[in-house]
Inverse folding.
């Protein structure tokens, strides 16, 4: 069933509350002060039942200038507007202001209701209707129905119900399949139920027993019970007026203006990027550094404006801006807000949040403006692609969902499309957007391309500094290229870089694919002499210090570089810090010992010495090397297989 909220708006004492009572039978003036003064102070709530069984919630918001804050708090969840104009007074200042507010809140359908028609003659009514026509020109109410009623006599009430029912059928269905969010406009304790918060559920659905999160504090609490339009319910849906009892929450920990939401789904920030619109009625100009009062949901706070694409903005103009907030604000991309001056009081305009938690530094660059244009007008896939790039490193679908302010299901569907597109890049000759690294780990193709360029420059510098080393150790490159990334994620990125062909990985060392070690004439001579020494010695090799003694002092530096090169290029295998074997000899030793284990369950030091035809010193070093690799393990005087030769 569709759940729709209808909001009243209009000047004080134009009969909004009386009209709601005539429609629903419910008196929304619930406070003693409201009864005494005849003025609505807090938003009141009622529901209107239709003959077909459908129901609409009605919010009766205050019209008096002093209560504009509560009017804004109540109008945040409104789908349809009912702009009320009293026939005996006509269009008044708050009529214009309320219409401007409803426009800024993104409401795009409704009707105009002329009340108190029993107090005006035909000539005066004609003037009032003309004023209304001028008022709504160019707004979402232009061309909409104008219904004349008298709550006192009942004239027009039936026709008004029919009109409301017809526009309710055309109202956009709210998404109930996403995480819920409820701006809190009332908080009070109830004996036996704990703290109760009320508001209009603006998205998603919430169930009894679900864990909810209070924002901006972050406190979590289970939903103890629910009421929808005053009746107990197991589930509440977007578009319904809802009261939620929270278990274990102190009254001092929640206030009007807080937000109750599904855990971990709403960003809280002191900075937001927005599209800011200025009303045509104002004579004021917003300049950089202007301080305004911002109304969002049921929350009011101070905001400093930094205009990004203009020097200043005046009436009927719009701009991109960054708002720095005096308090943390729970919000999402796409949320509407209103801004006002407070001295004197005046509604100035409003707009839409484009980035609820911007990570970029304040900038007026074309790159930042283009990113905001994408967030304002781009498709879901375009926004996902943009945010993946802004994250800058590896991310999960959940992380992307929260950063993009797009529900997780839509986010995963978008990733599926973008990655599927990537699989056909060669056929379509298009540039990839997002790359899947591992299970639920992704990276922007632009970010991967940037990392590839950075990696190439690192390896170029490394090859210049260490020309005789085949490549940089993977751990060293990982630390330099991806210092804040988990090892598993960093390895996945490096694997992707290798798959793209920009980097070559061999024996845990990374190099440029085209790089080859080249020796000078002196180094070639040293290399040949060392190779001969290792071949002749077989397993009985000299230590590095003993090998160095073969060469002159002038050759010492070149010797060190050549020996290191032979090790890093996998020509030599390290048995211990003092023993290196030629790789073919090492492989031969492994093969001989492995063959021994094919026939025997253990091997002794003496057996290893005899198999290799070497001394006890080298046989022991080799067996300890195998122990260190978990190939074998020492048991008494002999060794048996541990994890086996697959460890090598």
């Amino acid at each position: 069933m569709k759940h729709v909220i209808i909001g009243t708006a209009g000047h004080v004492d134009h009969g909004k509350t009386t009209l709601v009572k005539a429609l629903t039978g419910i008196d929304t003036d619930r406070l003693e002060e409201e009864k005494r003064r005849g003025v609505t102070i807090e938003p009141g709530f009622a529901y209107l039942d239709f003959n077909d069984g459908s129901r609409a919630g009605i919010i009766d918001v205050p019209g008096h200038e002093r209560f504009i804050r509560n009017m804004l708090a109540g109008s945040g969840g409104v789908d349809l507007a009912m702009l009320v104009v009293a026939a005996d007074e006509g269009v008044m200042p708050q009529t214009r202001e309320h219409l401007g507010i409803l426009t800024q809140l993104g409401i795009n359908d409704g009707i105009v209701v002329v009340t108190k028609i029993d107090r005006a003659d035909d000539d005066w009514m004609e003037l009032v209707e003309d004023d209304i026509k001028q008022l709504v020109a160019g707004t979402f109410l232009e061309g909409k129905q104008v219904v004349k009623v008298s709550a006192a006599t009942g004239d027009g009430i039936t026709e008004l119900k029919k009109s409301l029912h017809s526009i309710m059928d055309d109202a956009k269905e709210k998404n109930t399949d996403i995480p819920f969010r409820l701006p809190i406009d009332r908080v009070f304790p109830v004996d036996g139920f704990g703290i109760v918060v009320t508001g209009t559920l603006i998205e998603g659905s919430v169930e009894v027993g679900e864990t909810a999160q209070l924002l901006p504090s972050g406190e979590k609490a289970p939903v103890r019970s629910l009421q929808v339009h005053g009746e107990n319910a197991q589930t509440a849906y977007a578009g319904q007026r809802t009261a939620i009892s929270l278990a274990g929450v102190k009254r001092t920990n929640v206030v009007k203006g807080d937000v109750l939401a599904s855990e971990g789904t709403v960003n809280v920030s002191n900075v937001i990027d927005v599209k800011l619109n200025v009303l045509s009625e104002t004579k004021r100009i917003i300049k950089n550094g202007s301080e305004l009062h911002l109304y969002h949901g049921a929350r009011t706070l101070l905001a400093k404006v930094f205009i990004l694409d203009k020097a200043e903005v005046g009436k009927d103009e719009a701009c991109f801006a960054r708002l720095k907030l005096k308090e943390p604000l729970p919000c999402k991309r796409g949320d509407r807000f209103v801004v006002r001056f407070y001295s004197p009081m005046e509604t100035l305009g409003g707009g839409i949040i484009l980035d609820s938690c911007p990570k970029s530094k304040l900038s007026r660059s074309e790159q930042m403006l283009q990113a905001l244009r994408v967030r304002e007008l781009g498709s879901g896939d375009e926004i996902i692609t943009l945010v993946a790039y802004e994250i800058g490193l590896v991310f999960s679908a959940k992380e992307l969902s929260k950063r993009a302010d797009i529900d997780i299901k839509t986010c995963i569907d978008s990733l599926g499309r973008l990655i599927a597109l990537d699989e056909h890049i060669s056929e379509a000759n298009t540039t990839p957007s997002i790359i899947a690294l591992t299970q639920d780990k992704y990276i922007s193709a632009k970010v991967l391309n940037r990392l590839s360029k950075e990696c190439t420059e690192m390896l170029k510098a490394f090859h210049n500094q260490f020309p005789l080393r085949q490549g940089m150790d993977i751990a060293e490159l990982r630390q330099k290229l991806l210092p804040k990334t988990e090892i598993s994620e960093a390895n996945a990125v490096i694997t992707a870089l290798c798959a793209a062909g920009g980097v070559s990985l061999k024996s845990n060392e990374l190099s440029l694919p085209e790089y080859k070690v080249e020796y000078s004439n002196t180094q070639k001579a040293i290399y040949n002499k060392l190779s001969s020494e290792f071949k002749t010695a077989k397993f009985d090799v000299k230590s590095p210090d003993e090998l160095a003694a073969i060469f002159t002092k002038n050759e010492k530096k070149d010797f060190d570089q050549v020996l290191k090169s032979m090790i890093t290029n996998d020509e030599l295998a390290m048995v211990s810090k003092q023993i290196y074997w030629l790789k073919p000899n090492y492989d031969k030793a492994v093969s001989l010992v492995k063959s021994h284990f094919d026939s025997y369950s253990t091997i002794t030091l003496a057996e290893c010495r005899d198999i290799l035809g070497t001394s006890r010193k080298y046989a022991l070093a080799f067996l300890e090397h195998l122990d260190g690799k978990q190939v074998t393990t020492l048991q008494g005087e002999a060794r048996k297989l541990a994890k086996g030769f697959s460890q090598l």
Q: What stands out?
A: The chain is about 35% helix and 30% strand.
